[in-house]
Amino acid sequence: MNSPERAQSEVIGAVLLLGLTITAVGITAGIGANALADAQASADIERIEGSMTQVDSKASLVAHGGSTSQRVRLDPGRSADVRADGDAGVMRIEVEAETETGGTETVTKNVTLGAVVYERGDDRVAYQGGGVWRSNGEGSWMISPPEFHYRGDTLTLPLVTVDGDGLLDDSAVVTGGHPVGLFPSENVSNPLLGGNVTITVESEYAEGWGRFFETRTRANVTQLSPTEVQVALRTRTVHPAVSASASAIGAPRLEFGGINTLYADSYDSADGPYPGKGSASDNAVIQAASDFHLTAGGGGNTESIEIRGDLVAESYKIPNGQSDKLTVTGERRIGSDLGGVTPVSGAITARMNEARDATGSGESGFDLDNGSTVVIDTSTTFTGDVTVSDGTLQIEDGATVLVEGDLTVQGSGAIRSTDGAAAGNPNELLVDGTISVDDAPITTDTRFELYNTDTINVTGQARLAADGGVARNLWVYSSADDIAIDGEGDHGVAFTGVLYAPESSVTLTDAMTFNGSFTSGSFAFNDADLDLHYDESLRNLQPFEGEAVPVVSHLHVSKHQVKVESE
Predict the structure, then answer these.
(1) Which of 544, 428, 559 is CA-nearest to residue 109?
(2) What is the pLDDT of residues 50-78, one digit of tens each?
(3) CA-to-CA distance for 132 and 82, rounded, in angstroms?
(4) What is the rounded CA–CA span in Å between residue 349 and residue 191?
(5) Helix (H/G/I), strand (E/B), else coil: 91
(6) For residues 377 and 320, which has the higher predicted lDDT (pLDDT)?
(7) DSSP character for 495?
(8) What is the pTM of this model?
(9) Pairwise CA distance, residues 533 & 244, whole Å
(10) Is the pLDDT of residue 205 over 60?
(11) CA–CA separation, 115 vs 208, rounded Å?
(12) Which helix (H) or strand (E) holds 301?
């Protein structure tokens, strides 16, 4: 027979078990509900990003005259709103213009951007200024870019603005008006003379705008506040002196993971050619605008990095077990003297335009493949590709050669710059296309300047070199996105001169010997074996011979307003 105490304990146990079960079910249901809500919110955000991209596409079509009106489906969902806000954000464009008396005046245009905005809690997705942006209360970023084109010396900004006010239904209609030109204007004509172009954006999405400006202009971008960002584009600039063996101006980090060996030292060509490692000096400088990063995996492939001189970076990230592979005889400095990336594309474009004006309509391209020597001693334009595969293309007497297509030097072909410069002018070769040099030489005994706008590929045992190790006699200027140097054999590619490409990504593969200096936006390495010998006679020399060169010469800014309202 059961006792009353035992019967009571069974009832209490059943109640506790039932309570625990109900609690567990409640917690599980709550977690499941929260997970479901998070998944629903994420799906809503992804859906609205797609809708805003459609707004972008439809508004662009209307703004630029492709259609008088467009219908777009927004579908924000039941727990969020989409609204038009004609007062959201301002872009201010300031241009310093030269006056007739030689002074400068600042012309300012303020443009209200407006926006179409989706809101759900702290999450926002917005169409503004011709781009799509997202913010979450902690920061903002770009989903799709506005129409902002900066190439060569020309800035083109067809700015799409939004007119409208209030909530929008599931479907909206986009209509447009007439575009309004802002620049050039009565007081600011093309080309620009002197001063700066400054663009300031006041917006909830300023951080996203700032990152966009950094990637598209590579100019000085300043975050003035959480809601204000500014980009300064100089109309003309003077580039800094060539003071280092190798400089990475715009790299997220100077990463040496793909290096097998690197040896850096210095010599002075005023005293003669590079004397060899045993007699060289300890005045090399390797510098990066951000991190020096020796990866753990890549560091395992690295045999040694020896820098007879200084290593300069914003910070150092060297994994355990890799530090003994890095030797720096001078200072390992924190910080950098490098400024922001100063574009060369404007200067290169301007020089090519000058050459076109000077040489007229030009001749068609050609293929030199018969072993002969072709001498060019007067300024000439070739409208097509030039290939030198067997024979020598010789440039002399201060001639400027403009190639409108691609340049290829390969096999038994060669390019030679010689016989001094007429009236103090250097020999010049300007290539408005790609340059490919495969197992062939480009050499000079006088100052020779090589300009390029597209990809550069230097392969095999190619040689680009000034005679006698005098690096100041060869200057290679490039605005290419990518430069690839891929050596073969024990010595690989040999370069004696200055490679100045602060906007370019340079990839170095296998063997390379570099006498002089090179500057790029970033470096990448692929099983590289590098010898870098800095020519100290370059220390006080500046690209473009220290002259002020164009950065932004032509400005085309217009406002294209669209109205967004419920259907």
Answers:
(1) 559
(2) 889 999 999 999 999 889 999 998 877 66
(3) 14
(4) 13
(5) strand
(6) 377
(7) E
(8) 0.78
(9) 10
(10) yes
(11) 15
(12) helix 296-301
